[in-house]
Structure formats: structure tokens, C-alpha cells
Design a protein that fits this description.
Layout (H helix, E strand, L loop, with lengths): L2 H5 L14 E5 L1 H13 L5 E5 L11 H5 L3 E5 L2 H5 L6 H6 L6 H16 L1 H6 L2 E5 L21 H16 L5 E4 L1 H8 L45 H4 L4 H20 L6 E4 L10 H4 L12 H14 L3 E7 L2 H11 L12 E5 L3 H12 L6 E4 L3 H10 L4 E3 L6 H7 L10 H4 L1 H16 L3 H6 L3 E8 L7 H10 L12 H9 L3 E8 L4 E11 L2 E7 L8 H16 L5 E4 L12 H4 L3 E2 L6 E4 L11 E5 L3
Parallel strand pairs: 1-2, 1-3, 3-4, 4-5, 6-7, 6-9, 7-8, 9-10, 11-18, 14-15
Antiparallel strand pairs: 11-12, 12-13, 13-14, 15-17, 16-17
Helix pairs in contact: 6-8, 9-11, 13-17, 15-16
């Protein structure tokens, strides 16, 4: 298996995309990336700026930068540690020894100050490459290995510093080239077996051609012995390294844009979450199936998914009371508990129906779910009943890697909402149970709902990352279905557009930031809201507040809005009608709110204006 597919699995990928337009800023290694990418992706815009030491980047206006989806910064290690690293002996003999780590950090700061110019200017998505750590210690002695003068140790420490530094900037993430190098195998491409340690580039098999006629442009060097082809001396996988770097860029871009993102993973149990069948193979006095290996990896994977805000659930043909009773028999050591799953459909009904009920309970569509089952018949049955769902499970030795390493299960940055999602859902379930036992009016009046709403006028606002996440992953209550990139937000703000974001809390839980409304002049362009608060009449309260703001601050009389139907947004198609808007003109799904008319705010919702 190629390292690109091994490290960045494609099994959960549904939507094909054009390779992103990229501006590379870096050394000759970046130029090599550009040459290959231009050949591979002729339809993409790939450009390059040579950057060594602390060069000044050329001036570019926002529109020029806006042609790129991301920039890729590759600081040359040679410039970071300077060529003095080639003569460490001089530094050791000096009365003032060089602190290589301090020198490297200072130069990283100095170089990044210039290299991130376009990021600061427009907020463009920025991938910052780290350094490939040299393959072998070439320190002064065995005793000095992993000391402050050992380049392996120094470069490892500088990689840590790069990660710390990247977190200080908006939309900047580290592209971990060191991990790619480790998987491909540094011996197959890294040039430090031939060139100096801080060069940090790749071996090209044709180098040995420079020692042979007719490639030699000067007189024949007159070597005594013929030199073998470099490809026979060192097996070369430079092209595999390049392919994996390019796939990492694509994978990080997909994760940042939240393309095909997974929101819930639903597991079968027998021969999926553990070996064997719970009732038949875990009987007292008999030898039980081996629990080491892939089951341990899956149990840990459940918790890593939960940390990312991805919910986990169970759909199994079993007796639930037996599953709960014998759970600890199959799960040894007890790394995962039955209570770690937010929902369970364990009975003898078709799995597709149980999964459908789970998705309905979680307010999710099949396209947001992955079903893991060892039975190919069950997988096909679920796919037929729930179009759009993704299924895996045939090979237990690849499930963990697919679930944890796929771009579709990565998130760019955890929000407080994603960290508390599971807790909020459990509280939401408690809310729904109470709702079922009361009249709608009594239930709503007893909720104690508070709607906090604030305006966002630029991408520097502290809630922007959550807004970006919410808009690009919400399908059902999304009046147009439009996804927004960073450049879209920048252009929107510059043209006078405003975002109204809001959060909700009630006596059960704090739901966090759950909605975003885009407005410009007298028009409501897009209304996005998490379905977690659907049915609480929050959307009408939000609409009433925004209508009042547009009339007070912008002098709007008639307020306009529009619905663009998508495959998923049925829940929001009547939001304008419910807020007293009427269809306007001959265009279907275009709405207008007449002067003097305003949406009604339910008395159980208290509105407060905050700064977010």
C-alpha cells in the first residue's frame, strides 16, 4: 500500500474535489513540489515564491491572494540553523558556544514574521511544514547523543516550537512532514546520507549521472573505478514521498473545509467491537476469544472519536439486557463501557431501522454516519435502506486506521461545543423524555430558554472558528446550503455584510453557539441553525431580533429572504412563512416581510444581546 493511502485513507471519501490552488513559500524543496504538482494537477493554480533567510515577500493585493485556497510555508532548515551548523567544531572551540535551539527558535520567529504576511493580510489557510529530523546521530560521541548539540535532538525541539508557534495564528496548521518521512522510510529518500544534515531535501536517482559521460559537462573527472547507478546503491522512493506530501495537503484541506465530515460512528458488536459472539463464545468455564490486538485498538478509537466531538452508537441484533449484563466479559480490560455510547439500538429488528431511529434521535442524516459491521449482507442492507451512509468492517485490521486517520474524521480545531457535544446530547435526551410526558405549551414554558445573540463583523472575532465549523457542517436547518470559505467571509465583510451568531441555554443544558444568520442591507441571505434546538421556537425569536435590528440600524422597511432547496434542508423550508413572511413576486421561495409586520417572540424565550 502506498504511504499516501496508508496515512490518509480514502475509504470515507464521497465528494471528489479539484486539487486546491496553492501558493508555496519556501526553499528548493518547495520548488520541487511545485514542478510535480503542476504536472499532476494541470487544472489547479500552483505558484511558488523562493524564500530563504528572512526574505521579504512581494506585495500582493487581496484579490491576488484570493486566487489561492491555501499557502504552504516550508522554512529551510539550512537558514534556520545557518551554515554555522556545518562547522560545529568551530562553535565548540569558541569561548561563546552556540545554543543551537535558541538560535533556531530566534530564526524561526524572524523568518515567520515575513513568511506569514499573506495570512495576516487575508486569513488565508496556511500549512506550515515542519522539518524532517536527520536519520542518524552524528554527535561528538555516544555520550553526547540527544544533547543540545546533537542535530537530531535540536531539530526535534524546533519541530515542537513550530507547533507551538502555529497555534498563535489564525487558520495556521502544521503539516507534519516528519511523520510522513517516518512512514515512507527516511532511508529511501532523505539526502542526509549524501548531503549535509541541515539540507533536509530528497535524493534524486539521476545524481550519479553527473559522474558519467556524457552528462559531465567538464572534462572527464577520470575516476579510477566506475560508480554504480545511485538507484542500485540506495533504493529510492522519492516519488512516493512527494505523493504522500501532496495527499497530506489535500487531506488537511478536506478536513479544514469539512468535506464529507463524519458526525457519528455506529458499531455492530459481535465480531466487530470484539471477537466472537457474546452469547455463544463467552460462557463460564469455556475458553473465551482472544481480546488483544485489534479489539483494544477499536476500544481506544471510540474515545478518540468522542474527543473530536464525533458521537458513537451501537446497532446490533442481540438482547440488550444480555449485552449490558455480559459487556465486561467481552471487553477485557474494561477500556470502553456501554455507557460511552450515546445511543443504542439492540434488538432483533432490522439494523437499518435501528440506525434510522438513532439518526433521528441525533438529528443527523445518513450522509453524516459511518456504520461498522463485519457482515457484508448487513452492510449492503443498511446502504440500500439509508442512501448516503458509509459502511466499513470487512477487515478488522484496517478499521481503526480508517476511523482515526481519514480526513473525514479530523477537525481543524476543537470548539467548546464539540468538546461538550456528548454531554449536551445526553441532556437533550432528558429534555425530550420530559417533553413526551407534557403538553407542548407546558413543556416550552418550563424550559427557561435564554437566547444570546451577537454580531460578528470580521474573521478575528473569538467565535469565528465555531461559526466557520457550524456553517460548513449543517445540512438540515440551512436555508441555502451554501458553504463558506475564508475568502468568501472576507469579501462578505468588505461588502458590508454582517453575521448574527447566537447561543442557547435552558434549564437542561448550555447548547453553545448553535446558529448563524447572514444579513446584508435589508436581506437575510442565509439562516443556519443546529437541529439540537429545533422545536424550541428559537428560530422565530432570532428572526424577530434580526428584523428589529435591520429596521432600527439600516432603515429597512421590507425585509427579504430566500430558500434554496437542497436534499437535506426540509426542516427549515417554512421558517420564513412561520415568521410572517409571504412569497414575493413570481419567484418561488423568495419571501418578503411587509413594513410594520414582525415575527412573534414566544414568551418562554428570553433574548439578551452580548458580544459573544
Amino acid at each position: 500500500m502506498d504511504a499516501a493511502d496508508f496515512l490518509f485513507p480514502r475509504d470515507l471519501e464521497v465528494t471528489p474535489i479539484q486539487y486546491p490552488n496553492i501558493l508555496f513559500i519556501g526553499s528548493c524543496l518547495s520548488e520541487a513540489y511545485v514542478i510535480r504538482l503542476r504536472d499532476l494537477y494541470k487544472e489547479s493554480k500552483i505558484d511558488y515564491i523562493l524564500f530563504n533567510n528572512a526574505a521579504e515577500l512581494p506585495e500582493k493585493d487581496d484579490d491576488e491572494i484570493g486566487h489561492f485556497d491555501l499557502q504552504y510555508i516550508q522554512l529551510p532548515l539550512r537558514s534556520v540553523l545557518t551554515d554555522a551548523a556545518l562547522r560545529q567544531v568551530d562553535a565548540e572551540l569558541s569561548r561563546s558556544p552556540v545554543d543551537w535551539i535558541a538560535l533556531g527558535k530566534a530564526n524561526i520567529d524572524r523568518m515567520l514574521e515575513n513568511a506569514i504576511k499573506y495570512n495576516l493580510q487575508t486569513g488565508i489557510l496556511t500549512l506550515l511544514s515542519n522539518f524532517v529530523v536527520p536519520q542518524r546521530h552524528i554527535s561528538a560521541s555516544l555520550y553526547d547523543e540527544n544533547g543540545d548539540s546533537d542535530l537530531c535532538f535540536v531539530v526535534s525541539e524546533l519541530n515542537k516550537y513550530l507547533s507551538e508557534t502555529a497555534r498563535c495564528y489564525a487558520n495556521m496548521f502544521v503539516a507534519d512532514i516528519e511523520s510522513i518521512a517516518a512512514s515512507v522510510g527516511k532511508r529511501y529518500f532523505l539526502d542526509d546520507a549524501i548531503v549535509f544534515s541541515t539540507h533536509g531535501s530528497v535524493i534524486y536517482p539521476d545524481w550519479s549521472g553527473h559522474e558519467h559521460m556524457p552528462y559531465w559537462t567538464a572534462p572527464d573527472p577520470g575516476r579510477i573505478e566506475p560508480i554504480p547507478d545511485l538507484g542500485t546503491t540506495y533504493e529510492n522512493r522519492t516519488e512516493e514521498f512527494f505523493r504522500t506530501v501532496f495527499r497530506q495537503i489535500e487531506a488537511m484541506y478536506r478536513s479544514f473545509k469539512q468535506i464529507d465530515m463524519v458526525k457519528v460512528v455506529i458499531f455492530d458488536l459481535d465480531n466487530t467491537l470484539w471477537r466472537g459472539q457474546l452469547v455463544e463464545h463467552y460462557q463460564p468455564g469455556e475458553k473465551w476469544p482472544y481480546s488483544d490486538g485489534w479489539p483494544l485498538g477499536l476500544w481506544e478509537a471510540v474515545h478518540h472519536l468522542r474527543r473530536r466531538g464525533i458521537m458513537t452508537a451501537i446497532a446490533s441484533k442481540n438482547d440488550q439486557h444480555l449485552v449490558e449484563q455480559k459487556w465486561d466479559d467481552a471487553v477485557q480490560p474494561p477500556f470502553v463501557k456501554f455507557s460511552d455510547f450515546v445511543a443504542a439500538g439492540i434488538n432483533w429488528e432490522p439494523k437499518a431501522e435501528n440506525i434510522r431511529a438513532i439518526l433521528q434521535k441525533l438529528s443527523l442524516t445518513p450522509a453524516s454516519a459511518v456504520f461498522v459491521d463485519d457482515n457484508p449482507v448487513e452492510r449492503e442492507s443498511v446502504k440500500a435502506a439509508l442512501p448516503g451512509i458509509r459502511t466499513i468492517g470487512s477487515d478488522p485490521f484496517v478499521i481503526r486506521r480508517i476511523l482515526l486517520w481519514s480526513p473525514e474524521t479530523q477537525i481543524a480545531k476543537r470548539s467548546s461545543e464539540s468538546q461538550r457535544r456528548e454531554q449536551m446530547l445526553r441532556q437533550q435526551f432528558a429534555r425530550e423524555e420530559e417533553r413526551a410526558s407534557m403538553s407542548r405549551e407546558d413543556f416550552l414554558s418550563g424550559l427557561g430558554s435564554t437566547l444570546s445573540i451577537w454580531e460578528v463583523a470580521d474573521h478575528g472575532h473569538r467565535t469565528f472558528s465555531r461559526i466557520f465549523e457550524l456553517v460548513n457542517k449543517t445540512n438540515q436547518f440551512n436555508t441555502t446550503g451554501i458553504r463558506w470559505g475564508l475568502e468568501d467571509y472576507r469579501a462578505y465583510f468588505e461588502s458590508g455584510g454582517t453575521i448574527h451568531a447566537f447561543s442557547v441555554k435552558d434549564r437542561f443544558t448550555e447548547y453553545g453557539t448553535v446558529g448563524v444568520v447572514f444579513t446584508r442591507e435589508s436581506r437575510i441571505q442565509q439562516f443556519v441553525m443546529s437541529c439540537r434546538v429545533l422545536g424550541m421556537e428559537i428560530e422565530t425569536a432570532v428572526m424577530a431580533h434580526i428584523v428589529a435590528v435591520l429596521r432600527r440600524d439600516r432603515g429597512a422597511s421590507t425585509i427579504e429572504g430566500q430558500i434554496v432547496e437542497t436534499n437535506s434542508n426540509t426542516p427549515c423550508r417554512d421558517v420564513f412563512k412561520r415568521c410572517q413572511f409571504v412569497e414575493a413576486g413570481s419567484q418561488r421561495l423568495h419571501y418578503a416581510l411587509a413594513p410594520g409586520t414582525a415575527p412573534r417572540v414566544s414568551p418562554h424565550v428570553r433574548i439578551e444581546v452580548t458580544d459573544g
